[in-house]
Amino acid sequence: MQANTKVSIFYISMLGFALSILASFWIEHSLSSDALTSTVGTATIVQYLFAGAFMLLAWRTFPENHNSRRNSSRQKNIFWQVMVLGIVLRLLLIPIDSYTSSDTTRYLFDGKLAYEGIDPYQTAHDAPELQSLKEQWAPPEEHAKYATLYPPLALSLFAISASAGIEYAPLVWKLIVTFFSILTLLLAARLLKKMQREHYLPLIALSPLLILETGVGAHLDTISAFSILLIIDSLWKKKPIILGICIAIGTAIKLLPLALLMPIFVLAIFRRQIAFAFTTAFSTLFGLIVIYGTTFAIGFKPIGSIGVFFQNWRFGSPLFTYLENNSTSQVLIISLIALFIFGLAAISAYLYFSKANPRDKIISAMQYVVALPLVLSPVIFPWYLMLLAVLVALRPKPWLLAWILLAPLSYEVLNQFLCCTVWQPELWPLVILAFSVTSILLLSVNSFILSDKQLPVAFTNIMPKIIKRSFS
User: For residue 422, is it left (φ>0), alpha (ψ between -120 and 50) or beta?
Assistant: First the structure.
């Protein structure tokens, strides 16, 4: 493909992506029409698919630097154009009211309780003493029976937003998540420059998941995604105390960043960096003790209803749905535990055997260790994958990209929920997601296992035979 044609296609993809994202204003407007409300889920899916396709096209046509002054200058200009577009689109979505999720109203009501000195970890929304507050703040009824499940630092951000009052609290929260979304983009751009992978920028600057789940959904996972990059940045600076504190902060916003401690600790042990490994672990533990200890000291008991949530909710998880429908509860639990242990062992083996460069190795391990609990979880809302969307931008993998781009198929549930308050997820999004991701994963199985061509030959030779026999 000629350079000029490639650049033209790139700009067309940028325009197409921008129009796809701005379609949120039309989708939001359609909520005012009874005839269109039942199509919001379908419209959201189409929006995500088009935006995802344009993102991939922008990535594949982004000019790479071939050490010539002209190419370097062109890449630099386009790099900043992508940055500006990513930031502008994030800012333009601030006025949008969330229509894909009721999480924002949940956040703000939990924050209001904390601001008023009521422990949201011990007080469910249907408590009689909250009746007057419920009438003002109108938290989602589907969450009424559950106390909050969000960690202390997340709750503090909710409380800060709620302190602005019912009229301005949603705007304050939207400004907070948009601020962190832009910080995520800026930090990612810096990391990509360090890795000399500027051409990966569209995967994060133009990620429909990162933009729409911030600008429309206003999800806490936006801040959690930023904490992932903060952890990586601290790791590469080789400052174990700061690294541990960053992991603790990320965990106190949402629990999943704690998983990153595992590959960091294991790789350090394998490389005989014992002091680094244990300093990181102890500083993480110290940070969590300080945060949770302070929460207990002010009278809150930050345990919450996360166990009840996973016990009662089911959504968007192909593997869990299959296991639950085809086994007893005891077999289900044993299978999940066995898969989790096997997954951790496989990640450890990857860290030990892989000959990839250290940065690629740790990023891949982080992708696997974040993906593992999500794969086994009974609940996978699309915004849960925002952490993976950040990680995949640093080291793209086809199966991860497929998962991230197809997860929004589950938004079909909005069609009946918004028009008729019927929550009845269909099975077809899970089937498409499972088939697509598994197929791509099997096609790239060698690179998935150890992500390096210099692997033990016997291991890479035997895997295709195992797969072939499994499907024969």
Answer: beta
